DNA sequence: CGTATTCCCTGCACGC
DNA sequence: TGCGTGCAGGGAATAC
């Protein structure tokens, strides 16, 4: 039963023979795409009931979801970081898709399948169905006028004006953690996960291993611009690939062939053709070009 | 405080 | 073809 210890530190691993598959992991663009797809079907609708098929996802689903939500009218569907908030007068249902979660609006007559953990019953014979095989997601409750503890310490939204190179530069002084870990810290900036961090570092020419405090203001400017550009592109892409807005099932913002770094360890760099390096950093697979990223 | 590590969970790729 | 193993990931919790 010995749990194998993953290789740690910056030591590059041998190139993998198998491919990493960027499946529909909900990163910020996927959550935003889901929000846009769902909003027209939820706003101004009244929740008629809640069907819990499993009492817990990542955490137990609090009784307020069952006790307070039914009868409430959804007045807005918002996103904060990778959380979706279904606002009502009584409070907000707080949803996180984790790694494998998806939300769909379906006719209530569609039988629930495996991992269909929760339905919010909507008017006109429809339900909002939450499916999450790995159960890293959550459904929580935020009373009106309060901010849920999970949302209190979050950093700025990456697409907001509060987020730019100067902000990153100021926040990173004295930090010895690798810049990749720094960028993935939700207290620094929200919603920038493993895929998009790897792509932004590649685009900006910054090594993921470099200490966050040792990245210049100018390079942080390039990083912030890269993060914004990549996220905007992925959101736009999500909007175009989401054919059936009744089923916002996490259409990936990126197609595999658009990725320059993520999942391409050992393959040639798209700039210099040298093989991309891969290592474990902050408990995540990290791919970068040792020549183009410094 | 910052940093590093562990853990939660299941589907799938892979090797035998 | 079937079975066992390892790995993917967000991010909270924990340890230092």
UniProtKB/TrEMBL annotation:
Its EC number is 3.2.2.23, 4.2.99.18. It comes from Luteimonas vadosa. Residues 260-294 form the FPG-type domain. Involved in base excision repair of DNA damaged by oxidation or by mutagenic agents. Acts as DNA glycosylase that recognizes and removes damaged bases. Has a preference for oxidized purines, such as 7,8-dihydro-8-oxoguanine (8-oxoG). Has AP (apurinic/apyrimidinic) lyase activity and introduces nicks in the DNA strand. Cleaves the DNA backbone by beta-delta elimination to generate a single-strand break at the site of the removed base with both 3'- and 5'-phosphates. Gene3D superfamilies: 1.10.8.50, MutM-like, N-terminal. Belongs to the FPG family. The active site is at 26 (schiff-base intermediate with dna), 27 (proton donor), 82 (proton donor), 284 (proton donor). The gene is mutM. It comes from the Bacteria. This is Formamidopyrimidine-DNA glycosylase. Monomer.
